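Posting here for the record, re: magnesium ion.
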Amino acid sequence: MADLQQYSHGAGWKNAVLRGLLYLVLILFALYYLFPLFVMVSTSLKSLTEIREGSLISLPRVITFDAWTYAWNDACVGVTCSGIKVYFWNSVKMAIPAVLISTFLGAINGYALTKFRFKGANVVFALLLFGCFIPFQVVLLPMSQVLGKLGLASSTPGLVMVHVVYGLCFTTLFFRNYYVSIPDELVKAATIDGAGFFTIFWRIILPISTPIIVVSVIWQFTQIWNDFLFGASFSSGDNAPMTVALNNIVNTTTGVKAYNVDMATALLTGLPTLLVYVLAGKYFVRGLTAGSVKG
Amino acid sequence: MSSLTLDKVRKAYGPVEVLKEINLAIEDGEFLVLVGPSGCGKSTLLNLIAGLESSSGGEIRIGDRVINDVHPKDRNIAMVFQSYALYPNMTVRKNITFGLEIRRVSAEERDKAVASVAKLLQIEPLLDRKPAQLSGGQRQRVAMGRALVRNPDIFLFDEPLSNLDAKLRVDMRTEIKKLHQRLGATIVYVTHDQIEAMTLASRIAVMKDGILQQFDTPQRIYEHPNNMFVAGFIGSPSMNFIHAKLISDNGRLAISIERGSNPIVLPLKDAPESYNAYVGKDVVFGIRPEGLTHKRTGSEEPGSQYVNFDSKVEVIEPTGADTMTVIEIGGKEIVARVRPDRAPHPGETMTFSADMSQISLFDPVTELRI
Ligand SMILES: Nc1ncnc2c1ncn2[C@@H]1O[C@H](COP(=O)(O)OP(=O)(O)O)[C@@H](O)[C@H]1O
Ligand SMILES: [Mg+2]
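Prediction output follows.
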């Protein structure tokens, strides 16, 4: 230790300079990423007059939440002017069932693939894994045909189904990888105790799956809430999700451009995913790295 | 009633045969230990008996009932796993009663059953804890409690002690033995530890590569191992194997071990008929360390079971009770078990007595007992 300190002492000033440079670069990166957020928040809190007169980066002189309430209650999407709130609820009605169903099915799949290794389990898993790499665009046309045949075209249940099907590959992968590390002996013991497939799942496997459920929920919620392509393709008018409505508001070409409303709408749209991360983020990291039960 | 019979039981995973024609039969109340090196198929065999795997052939019977196609829960067996497999989300009490609950035993009876098992295993203070809050030994007890509470026909244990530290392992071994004596239960117990096998079993089945090598009482297996594998696997330190020749010395059979110009000749005592075919041929002479000792009193009298020979001592390893003395014969290191007060110094030449009443001879090619 003493030797080491002596050694580094000689090159002390050099280290300090390098360290300073490192921090400078890091701070620049951080600013680069934070700046747009700052502009959005600050703009959303200004009045239109102030935006027109002031500069992009100046702080608001008078803080006003008018743009936020306007975005929520009165902004025009197409011809209806009842704010983003309708579409917020559309997104909620789409995302919550889709997240829950895809997570639940992923859990059952992962459980069956690891603990009840039926014939061809590996093939099924390989195919599911392949599903993770199918780009959105490829499934658009066949999916719209299927939705049409099922009578679910342009409806929230239809969107839920699309997201469940598309998300299943990911949730299955999560749960499968988590359950691989849970000892098979647990299932064997329960089998001898007389429990069947679903009893074991409900009573033993699911209660120890909290970390991976959190991972799956966060992942799926982020994907589904932020999705634009499926929303734009498979919904129409009143039942469009929030992302599609946001696009309509921002891209309206008539009238004066209300930047503060645009920013407030965008922030409102992004808020739920942010909230999920803040509330469950630490479980997310823990779940990604977690082993499961100790022997 | 709860005897267990395995009749030509086989198990294959695809083309890989993991178990080959296993025949075993134990009576009600016996303690069968399946022992063998890791990967020899012990757990697979236990899983077949439990019904967690299905056999590729043969018949498994409990009492007179063929159970090949009976679901594990209906076989009336209970199993204790190496990892204990306690349900992590349930308290100890729930862990123990889970099986009863599934079988729709009333809450009142469950409480009674758990109380009596907890008393028997002295885990009463632990009943409301979760498995994560227990030590290894305590988890082990809970796992046993889960098996005991069901009062099954047959208990199956898969290496239940191998995750415990040495001291606890010995204590729990004694407890399992006591439990067996007290309950008179039929037990099938898997281990790779030959000492556990010797101390616990009423009968031992030694396995290797999916083949049953020998099925007999511990003493018979120790004294009359069927082949060199069993001889080397059972007993610690393991049996010495020395390449030798079986010769006829003035009409008396003897073992001749090459050693430069000065071979060791050990006349046999009460040689069985089967040896005659091997006169003049190479054999493997097997003798356990306790059969090779310091010079015994009476070893020079005619008709003694002891034969003396001299050898230089290479290394000594005191264990307290005995001193393991390593000598070199025919290029191989041989271990003798010497009383500490008679222990030599390394480099010395000493007289050893070989106890010819407890030797084994093996065919050097087939490795089978002669
Ligand atoms: N599901 C399986 N598929 C293929 N081979 C298996 C399977 N389970 C066990 N084996 C093989 O069977 C052999 C015996 O395994 P096991 O019964 O666990 O051995 P032991 O308990 O004696 O250590 C091992 O060689 C193992 O690789
Ligand atoms: Mg095993």
